[in-house]
Known about the structure:
It comes from Streptomyces brevispora. It contains 7 helices and 6 strands; from the N terminus they run αββααββαββααα. It has one domain (2-164). It has helices at residues 2-13, 40-50, 56-68, 92-104, 121-140, 172-180, 185-191; strands spanning 22-23, 27-28, 74-76, 82-84, 106-108, 113-116. The strands form 3 sheets. The protein has a two-stranded antiparallel sheet. Strands 3-4 form a two-stranded antiparallel sheet. Helix 2 packs across helix 5 (121-140).
Amino acid sequence: xxxxxxxxxxxxxxxxxxxxxxxxxxxxxxxxxxxxxxxxxxxxxxxxxxxxxxxxxxxxxxxxxxxxxxxxxxxxxxxxxxxxxxxxxxxxxxxxxxxxxxxxxxxxxxxxxxxxxxxxxxxxxxxxxxxxxxxxxxxxxxxxxxxxxxxxxxxxxxxxxxxxxxxxxxxxxxxxxxxxxxxxxxxxxxxx
Length: 192
C-alpha cells in the first residue's frame, strides 16, 4: 500500500503522466537519463547552497565534503556498467559501495602511498548523514525526483570497530598494595 501511495504521488507530481522511466506492464526500467535529473554533485552543491540556519564555516565544510567525498559516488547499472551518479539514479547498492570506499580508502600501489586515507567510522557516518539529507531533498522537491531515500537502512561502520574492552577489577589485596604505593594523601583519597 505504501508503494502504491508513493507511486500515486509521483504520478500526480508529473501532472498525471507516467513518470520518466516507467513502462506500463514493466514498472520502472533503467532509463538512459532523465532530462530533469541532475548530476549528484551538482544537486548536492545546490542543496548546501540553499541551506538556511547554518553559519558560513559549516556551509564551507559541507561543500568540502561534497567535493572531496560525495563526488566519489558512482552508479552501477544492473548490467554492471559504471556511470556518473545522478540524484535520481543512485541506489542503496551504490551507497553501500561508497561507504565501503570510505572505510577502505584508496591506496595507489604504483607509488606506494594513499591517494585517500580510510575514513574513521565517525567521519563516514557524518558524510552519510549529509548524503541522506541531500537525497531526502530530492524526495521533497516539487516535483519529486525520487520516491524513496536510498541511504535509509545503510549499515555503517561501528564507532568501536566491533571490539569491546573487558573491564578489569582489582582484588582487595591488589587494591591495598596499590594504595600503599601512592605517596600523596590527596591522591590516595582520589583512589578511594
